[in-house]
Predict the 3D structure of the following.
Amino acid sequence: MKKERRHELSENVLAHELAQAKTFLQRYGNWIIGALSVLIIVGLIAWYHHKKVNEELANETYLYQALISSLNKMQSSQNSKDVEQCISELEELAQSAKSPIISALAAINVADLMAGRYTYALTQGQAEKAEKYRKKAEKLYQFVLNKHSDRKIFVAKAHYGLGTLAENQGKWETAISEYQKVRRSLISAYPVVSQAIFRINRIKQWTKPGSKPIRFATTIPATQPATNSSAATQPTTSHN
C-alpha cells in the first residue's frame, strides 16, 4: 500500500509540474523563441564580421608585402613611374589600413625612403627637392607618433627618423632630443636604440670645442625602404 501511495504521489507531482510548464510555455513561449532567434542572428552577424575583418587584415598584409617586394626589385629605377606608384600605394595603405601594424609599417617605410632621398638631394645641392622630401618624411613620422603612440617600436623608429632629419639640418639639440626619446621608448637591446646612442655620442664628439667642421654624409641611399624598418619589423600579432 505504501509503495502504491508513493507512486500515486509521484504521478501527481509530475502532472502538476507538467501543467506548470505548459502554462509557462503558453505564456512566455513566444518570448523565448524570439529571444533565441535574436541570439542566433546576433551570433551569425558577429561571426560574419569577424570573418570579414580577418580577410581584410590578410589582404592588407599581402598588399604591404607585395609593395615592399616590388620596391626592393626596383633599386635601379628610383625615378620610374612604377616606383612612385608603389610609394603612393604604400602611403594610401598607411592611411587606410585597419591593422595598426600594417599602417605604421607602411608609414615608417615611406618616411625612411623620403629621409634617404632628402639626404641625397642635400649632397647634390638640390635644395628644393631636399626640402620637399624632408617635409614629407616629417609628416609621415608625425603621423606614426600621433596615430600609433601606443606602439613603442614604431614610436622609437619615428623619433629616430626625426632625429636624422634634424641632424642633417645641423640642429644638434633637436637631434639629440629625438634620439633621447628613442632611448626612453625601448630597452637597449633594440638595434634602433643602439643606433640612437651612437648618433648622440657622435654629435657630442662633433660639437665639442676644437672639433673639426661637420660634413654631411655622401652615401647614396637605396631605393628600397631601410632594412631596419621593413625586414626587422615584419607584421606580427602583437606589439608593445
Notes: DSSP finds eight helices and no strands in the chain. Residues 217-240 have pLDDT under 50 and may be disordered. The chain has one domain: 2-230. Residues 39 and 85 are 47 Å apart (CA to CA).
